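Write out the 3D structure for:
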Amino acid sequence: MSTARERWLAILNPVAGGGRALRDRPRLEAALRSAGVPFVLSVSEHPGHAVALAQMAAAEGFRRFIAVGGDGTLNEVANGVMRAGISPAQATLALLPVGRGDDWARTHHIPRGLEEAVRLVAAGRSVAHDLGVAEFQRDGSRRYFINVAGVGFDAYVVEQTQAMRLGPLTYVAGLLRGFATYRAPRMAVYTDTMRLDEPLFVTFAAVGRYCGGGMHVAPAAETDDGLLDVVAIGDIGRLELVVNLRRLFDGSLPEYRKVRTVRCDRVLVETSPAVGVQADGELLGEAPVTFSVLRRAVRVIVP
Protein backbone atom coordinates (compact mmCIF):
# COMPACT_ATOMS: atom_id res chain seq x y z
CA MET A 1 0.00 0.00 0.00
CA SER A 2 1.33 3.44 -0.91
CA THR A 3 2.44 5.82 1.83
CA ALA A 4 1.08 9.34 2.40
CA ARG A 5 4.11 10.82 0.63
CA GLU A 6 3.42 8.68 -2.43
CA ARG A 7 -0.29 9.47 -2.64
CA TRP A 8 -2.10 12.57 -3.80
CA LEU A 9 -4.73 14.20 -1.62
CA ALA A 10 -7.51 15.35 -3.95
CA ILE A 11 -9.66 18.04 -2.33
CA LEU A 12 -12.96 18.51 -4.16
CA ASN A 13 -14.99 21.70 -3.87
CA PRO A 14 -18.59 20.50 -4.25
CA VAL A 15 -19.95 23.86 -5.42
CA ALA A 16 -17.23 24.51 -8.02
CA GLY A 17 -18.55 24.94 -11.53
CA GLY A 18 -22.10 25.25 -10.26
CA GLY A 19 -21.89 21.80 -8.69
CA ARG A 20 -20.18 20.14 -11.66
CA ALA A 21 -17.20 19.06 -9.55
CA LEU A 22 -19.44 17.00 -7.27
CA ARG A 23 -21.49 15.60 -10.14
CA ASP A 24 -18.27 14.49 -11.85
CA ARG A 25 -16.85 12.81 -8.77
CA PRO A 26 -17.36 9.20 -10.03
CA ARG A 27 -15.81 10.12 -13.36
CA LEU A 28 -12.90 11.85 -11.60
CA GLU A 29 -12.14 8.87 -9.38
CA ALA A 30 -12.33 6.51 -12.35
CA ALA A 31 -9.97 8.72 -14.35
CA LEU A 32 -7.43 8.88 -11.52
CA ARG A 33 -7.48 5.09 -11.06
CA SER A 34 -7.24 4.51 -14.80
CA ALA A 35 -4.21 6.84 -15.00
CA GLY A 36 -2.50 5.01 -12.14
CA VAL A 37 -2.57 8.00 -9.79
CA PRO A 38 -2.63 6.87 -6.12
CA PHE A 39 -5.01 9.17 -4.28
CA VAL A 40 -7.24 9.87 -1.34
CA LEU A 41 -10.24 12.13 -1.99
CA SER A 42 -11.79 14.56 0.49
CA VAL A 43 -14.78 16.83 -0.11
CA SER A 44 -14.73 20.29 1.46
CA GLU A 45 -17.86 21.19 3.40
CA HIS A 46 -17.71 24.99 3.65
CA PRO A 47 -15.55 27.97 2.67
CA GLY A 48 -12.13 27.62 4.25
CA HIS A 49 -12.48 23.87 4.84
CA ALA A 50 -9.97 23.03 2.09
CA VAL A 51 -7.38 25.02 4.08
CA ALA A 52 -7.90 22.77 7.10
CA LEU A 53 -7.98 19.58 5.00
CA ALA A 54 -4.69 20.41 3.29
CA GLN A 55 -3.07 21.50 6.55
CA MET A 56 -4.04 18.27 8.33
CA ALA A 57 -2.95 16.12 5.41
CA ALA A 58 0.44 17.85 5.22
CA ALA A 59 0.92 17.22 8.94
CA GLU A 60 0.15 13.54 8.27
CA GLY A 61 2.86 13.35 5.62
CA PHE A 62 1.10 14.21 2.36
CA ARG A 63 3.19 16.32 0.00
CA ARG A 64 1.12 16.12 -3.19
CA PHE A 65 -2.24 17.87 -3.48
CA ILE A 66 -4.89 18.09 -6.19
CA ALA A 67 -7.39 20.96 -6.05
CA VAL A 68 -10.63 19.94 -7.78
CA GLY A 69 -12.34 23.25 -8.38
CA GLY A 70 -11.23 26.72 -9.39
CA ASP A 71 -8.78 29.41 -8.35
CA GLY A 72 -10.34 29.73 -4.89
CA THR A 73 -9.96 26.01 -4.21
CA LEU A 74 -6.31 26.08 -5.29
CA ASN A 75 -5.82 29.15 -3.08
CA GLU A 76 -7.19 27.32 -0.04
CA VAL A 77 -5.03 24.27 -0.68
CA ALA A 78 -1.92 26.45 -0.97
CA ASN A 79 -2.79 28.23 2.28
CA GLY A 80 -3.28 24.91 4.05
CA VAL A 81 0.13 23.71 2.93
CA MET A 82 1.73 26.96 4.11
CA ARG A 83 0.05 26.73 7.51
CA ALA A 84 1.26 23.17 8.07
CA GLY A 85 4.77 24.32 8.91
CA ILE A 86 6.48 22.04 6.40
CA SER A 87 8.99 23.31 3.88
CA PRO A 88 6.55 24.48 1.18
CA ALA A 89 9.09 23.72 -1.56
CA GLN A 90 8.50 20.04 -0.74
CA ALA A 91 4.85 20.38 -1.78
CA THR A 92 3.48 19.82 -5.27
CA LEU A 93 0.11 21.27 -6.26
CA ALA A 94 -2.10 20.31 -9.19
CA LEU A 95 -5.42 21.70 -10.38
CA LEU A 96 -8.32 19.95 -12.09
CA PRO A 97 -10.08 23.11 -13.31
CA VAL A 98 -13.84 23.06 -12.92
CA GLY A 99 -14.35 26.57 -11.54
CA ARG A 100 -16.07 29.65 -12.99
CA GLY A 101 -12.96 31.51 -14.05
CA ASP A 102 -9.97 29.14 -13.87
CA ASP A 103 -7.57 32.02 -14.46
CA TRP A 104 -4.55 30.23 -12.97
CA ALA A 105 -5.21 27.34 -15.34
CA ARG A 106 -5.40 29.83 -18.22
CA THR A 107 -1.93 31.18 -17.44
CA HIS A 108 -0.45 27.68 -17.44
CA HIS A 109 -2.56 26.19 -20.26
CA ILE A 110 -4.03 23.52 -18.00
CA PRO A 111 -6.62 21.58 -20.04
CA ARG A 112 -10.23 21.89 -18.89
CA GLY A 113 -11.12 18.36 -19.98
CA LEU A 114 -11.16 16.12 -16.89
CA GLU A 115 -9.37 13.14 -18.41
CA GLU A 116 -6.76 15.40 -20.02
CA ALA A 117 -6.07 17.19 -16.76
CA VAL A 118 -5.74 13.85 -14.92
CA ARG A 119 -3.25 12.62 -17.50
CA LEU A 120 -1.26 15.78 -16.80
CA VAL A 121 -1.11 14.85 -13.12
CA ALA A 122 -0.06 11.31 -14.00
CA ALA A 123 2.74 12.62 -16.24
CA GLY A 124 4.12 14.42 -13.18
CA ARG A 125 5.93 17.35 -14.81
CA SER A 126 6.31 20.05 -12.17
CA VAL A 127 7.92 23.49 -12.08
CA ALA A 128 8.70 25.93 -9.27
CA HIS A 129 6.08 28.62 -8.65
CA ASP A 130 6.00 31.84 -6.61
CA LEU A 131 3.43 32.53 -3.91
CA GLY A 132 2.12 35.99 -3.15
CA VAL A 133 1.63 37.11 0.45
CA ALA A 134 -1.05 39.55 1.62
CA GLU A 135 -0.47 41.02 5.10
CA PHE A 136 -3.23 43.13 6.65
CA GLN A 137 -2.25 45.98 8.95
CA ARG A 138 -5.57 46.18 10.79
CA ASP A 139 -5.44 42.74 12.39
CA GLY A 140 -1.99 41.39 11.49
CA SER A 141 -3.46 38.51 9.49
CA ARG A 142 -1.64 36.93 6.56
CA ARG A 143 -2.99 35.14 3.50
CA TYR A 144 -1.12 33.55 0.59
CA PHE A 145 -2.18 33.72 -3.04
CA ILE A 146 -0.97 31.92 -6.14
CA ASN A 147 -2.43 34.07 -8.91
CA VAL A 148 -3.64 37.70 -8.63
CA ALA A 149 -4.69 39.96 -5.76
CA GLY A 150 -6.64 43.19 -6.23
CA VAL A 151 -7.61 46.24 -4.19
CA GLY A 152 -10.63 48.29 -5.16
CA PHE A 153 -13.01 47.54 -8.01
CA ASP A 154 -11.79 43.97 -8.44
CA ALA A 155 -12.71 43.09 -4.86
CA TYR A 156 -15.98 45.01 -5.23
CA VAL A 157 -16.95 42.87 -8.22
CA VAL A 158 -16.04 39.67 -6.35
CA GLU A 159 -18.43 40.78 -3.62
CA GLN A 160 -21.14 41.46 -6.20
CA THR A 161 -20.74 38.05 -7.85
CA GLN A 162 -20.80 35.85 -4.76
CA ALA A 163 -24.49 35.07 -5.14
CA MET A 164 -24.37 34.74 -8.94
CA ARG A 165 -24.28 31.40 -10.76
CA LEU A 166 -23.76 32.39 -14.38
CA GLY A 167 -20.72 30.30 -15.27
CA PRO A 168 -18.06 32.11 -17.34
CA LEU A 169 -20.34 35.18 -17.63
CA THR A 170 -20.43 35.72 -13.86
CA TYR A 171 -17.60 38.23 -13.73
CA VAL A 172 -18.90 40.17 -16.74
CA ALA A 173 -22.29 40.41 -15.00
CA GLY A 174 -20.53 41.62 -11.87
CA LEU A 175 -18.65 44.22 -13.90
CA LEU A 176 -21.88 45.60 -15.30
CA ARG A 177 -23.51 45.71 -11.88
CA GLY A 178 -20.44 47.34 -10.33
CA PHE A 179 -20.28 50.11 -12.92
CA ALA A 180 -23.45 51.65 -11.52
CA THR A 181 -22.36 52.09 -7.90
CA TYR A 182 -18.58 51.92 -7.55
CA ARG A 183 -16.56 55.08 -6.96
CA ALA A 184 -12.76 55.08 -7.13
CA PRO A 185 -11.26 55.59 -3.64
CA ARG A 186 -8.08 57.47 -2.94
CA MET A 187 -5.19 55.00 -2.88
CA ALA A 188 -1.60 55.39 -1.78
CA VAL A 189 0.55 52.81 -3.57
CA TYR A 190 4.16 52.55 -2.45
CA THR A 191 6.91 50.44 -4.00
CA ASP A 192 10.66 50.99 -4.10
CA THR A 193 10.30 52.80 -7.44
CA MET A 194 6.72 54.10 -7.56
CA ARG A 195 4.73 56.46 -5.34
CA LEU A 196 1.06 57.13 -6.07
CA ASP A 197 -1.49 58.99 -3.96
CA GLU A 198 -4.64 59.68 -5.92
CA PRO A 199 -8.05 58.18 -6.80
CA LEU A 200 -7.45 54.77 -8.38
CA PHE A 201 -9.98 52.42 -9.88
CA VAL A 202 -8.09 49.27 -8.91
CA THR A 203 -4.59 48.12 -8.06
CA PHE A 204 -3.50 44.58 -8.93
CA ALA A 205 -0.58 42.64 -7.47
CA ALA A 206 -0.02 39.77 -9.87
CA VAL A 207 1.92 36.53 -9.76
CA GLY A 208 -0.05 35.18 -12.74
CA ARG A 209 -1.39 36.90 -15.81
CA TYR A 210 -5.19 36.57 -15.68
CA CYS A 211 -7.99 37.20 -13.22
CA GLY A 212 -11.74 37.74 -13.22
CA GLY A 213 -12.58 35.07 -15.77
CA GLY A 214 -10.08 35.93 -18.47
CA MET A 215 -9.04 39.53 -17.80
CA HIS A 216 -5.47 39.76 -19.09
CA VAL A 217 -4.28 42.27 -16.51
CA ALA A 218 -0.58 41.38 -16.28
CA PRO A 219 0.50 40.00 -19.67
CA ALA A 220 4.22 40.15 -18.85
CA ALA A 221 4.01 38.43 -15.45
CA GLU A 222 6.27 35.44 -14.79
CA THR A 223 5.25 32.96 -12.11
CA ASP A 224 8.77 32.09 -10.95
CA ASP A 225 10.75 35.35 -11.00
CA GLY A 226 10.23 36.35 -7.37
CA LEU A 227 8.46 39.56 -8.40
CA LEU A 228 4.93 40.94 -8.44
CA ASP A 229 3.58 42.80 -11.44
CA VAL A 230 1.77 45.79 -9.91
CA VAL A 231 -0.88 47.31 -12.20
CA ALA A 232 -2.60 50.51 -11.04
CA ILE A 233 -5.56 51.80 -13.05
CA GLY A 234 -6.41 55.46 -12.57
CA ASP A 235 -9.86 56.91 -11.97
CA ILE A 236 -11.92 56.34 -15.09
CA GLY A 237 -15.52 57.21 -15.89
CA ARG A 238 -18.18 54.71 -16.85
CA LEU A 239 -18.19 55.55 -20.55
CA GLU A 240 -14.39 55.49 -20.66
CA LEU A 241 -14.41 52.10 -18.96
CA VAL A 242 -16.95 50.65 -21.37
CA VAL A 243 -15.09 51.97 -24.42
CA ASN A 244 -11.84 50.45 -23.16
CA LEU A 245 -13.29 47.25 -21.72
CA ARG A 246 -11.56 45.17 -24.40
CA ARG A 247 -8.20 46.20 -22.95
CA LEU A 248 -8.98 44.15 -19.86
CA PHE A 249 -9.09 41.03 -22.00
CA ASP A 250 -6.77 41.50 -25.00
CA GLY A 251 -3.49 42.14 -23.15
CA SER A 252 -3.24 45.83 -24.06
CA LEU A 253 -4.20 47.14 -20.61
CA PRO A 254 -0.64 48.27 -19.65
CA GLU A 255 -0.53 50.45 -22.77
CA TYR A 256 -3.45 52.65 -21.70
CA ARG A 257 -2.58 56.18 -20.60
CA LYS A 258 -4.23 55.81 -17.18
CA VAL A 259 -2.47 52.58 -16.30
CA ARG A 260 0.87 52.44 -14.51
CA THR A 261 2.84 49.27 -13.98
CA VAL A 262 5.92 48.31 -12.01
CA ARG A 263 7.63 45.04 -11.15
CA CYS A 264 8.70 44.70 -7.52
CA ASP A 265 8.92 42.30 -4.60
CA ARG A 266 6.81 44.37 -2.18
CA VAL A 267 4.01 46.94 -2.40
CA LEU A 268 1.96 48.73 0.25
CA VAL A 269 -1.58 49.85 -0.62
CA GLU A 270 -3.52 52.21 1.65
CA THR A 271 -7.00 53.53 0.84
CA SER A 272 -9.46 56.17 1.97
CA PRO A 273 -12.14 55.12 2.64
CA ALA A 274 -11.27 51.50 3.46
CA VAL A 275 -11.96 49.19 0.51
CA GLY A 276 -11.91 45.44 -0.03
CA VAL A 277 -9.03 43.20 -1.01
CA GLN A 278 -9.43 39.99 -3.01
CA ALA A 279 -6.96 37.31 -4.03
CA ASP A 280 -7.59 34.41 -6.40
CA GLY A 281 -11.25 35.39 -6.48
CA GLU A 282 -11.72 35.26 -2.69
CA LEU A 283 -12.46 38.25 -0.45
CA LEU A 284 -9.74 38.50 2.20
CA GLY A 285 -10.20 41.76 4.09
CA GLU A 286 -9.68 45.50 3.73
CA ALA A 287 -6.73 47.75 2.99
CA PRO A 288 -4.22 48.81 4.20
CA VAL A 289 -2.42 45.73 2.91
CA THR A 290 1.15 44.86 2.01
CA PHE A 291 1.76 42.43 -0.83
CA SER A 292 5.04 40.55 -1.10
CA VAL A 293 6.23 37.36 -2.77
CA LEU A 294 7.92 34.09 -1.85
CA ARG A 295 10.09 33.06 -4.78
CA ARG A 296 9.60 29.51 -6.07
CA ALA A 297 7.80 28.54 -2.88
CA VAL A 298 5.92 25.51 -4.21
CA ARG A 299 5.96 23.18 -7.20
CA VAL A 300 3.00 22.91 -9.57
CA ILE A 301 1.97 20.43 -12.24
CA VAL A 302 1.92 21.97 -15.73
CA PRO A 303 1.94 20.70 -19.33
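The longest strand covers residues 289-301.
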